[in-house]
């Protein structure tokens, strides 16, 4: 039974977005696509324990979902255009069970990121439909309530249906109006894989990070001159390169300064550095300006260019964060900048900057404060900050790390 349950969990993680994309291409309705995909997985939960896991679970789910959708449309066929319904009902050509639907996911990505939708709505919808993230995971990414995310998704799907937004990869002329939303979604999908927010799931989800990289490569191919697409790809590659060293054998997060840099993927780092250099050269030649993802990629290039954390050029990191702050003056950017300032000007200066930020519900804020307070010898305050960070963090590896750091503190002091 456990084997079957694990198989269903794995297939859901790997195939959800592909099934939804395939159904959306065929039936042109996001609600039907999502509902029938969910029904197909529910059928699998009922049948697979008795019948066994099929040889091609993804194809089984897709076929079952298609049949469920056809049955539903047959029941409702009198309500709408009968000729159009009949074409869908009797087009029983089964979808390709393997990689042939990759373009479907790209179409779905651009459909959900249509400029007719508000940016927050299109990002939330795409995270759900393409990224396969749950509503709680999306809420964590946005730092908002789950009900807010649910409302955004419902409104976005309703607008797509009412406005008859086509399910297709847009023309070259349409791409610039959509690409910022697409890149934002891919970045958030990657982030959820980089540090999973759900404590019931594995700490690092390579299925999400690798899929985000694959789709970002496709976007970069579609728009080779778009600096932010290149920058985001570089950023993902440089972060993904560190994945083998990010979690210890005991399941604890390993921070950047403590990682075994010999375990990093040098090929990914070389590819990421090459993209960063190309973008620096292009900006220097007056071909566009450095955007958020390009600057973040440059920061990660600094971190991955040295073999020892002690050789990190923190002044360059701080300067890049200063540049990023000018185009993205968010408190999260300010928090990350403060980490670099701590290395340059000391933890007291950095703590002053951090304490001025309105990020009380963000676990990384409290984790950063805890580390700075620990370095200042203020153990009691550091312990309280660690406690709050542990309470807010959902990632199991991060919780394990924060717990160990808290427990290493000496006796509390005033």
From TrEMBL:
Pfam families: DUF6596, Sigma70_r2, Sigma70_r4_2. Residues 109-159 form the RNA polymerase sigma factor 70 region 4 type domain. Belongs to the sigma-70 factor family. ECF subfamily. Residues 178-278 form the DUF6596 domain. Residues 76-95 are annotated as: Disordered. It comes from Nocardioides panacis. PANTHER family: BLL6612 PROTEIN, BLL6612 PROTEIN-RELATED. Keywords: Sigma factor, Transcription, Transcription regulation. It comes from the Bacteria. InterPro entries: DUF6596, RNA_pol_sigma-70_dom, RNA_pol_sigma70_r2, RNA_pol_sigma70_r4_t2. This is Sigma-70 family RNA polymerase sigma factor. GO terms for molecular function: DNA binding; sigma factor activity. Residues 18-79 form the RNA polymerase sigma-70 region domain.
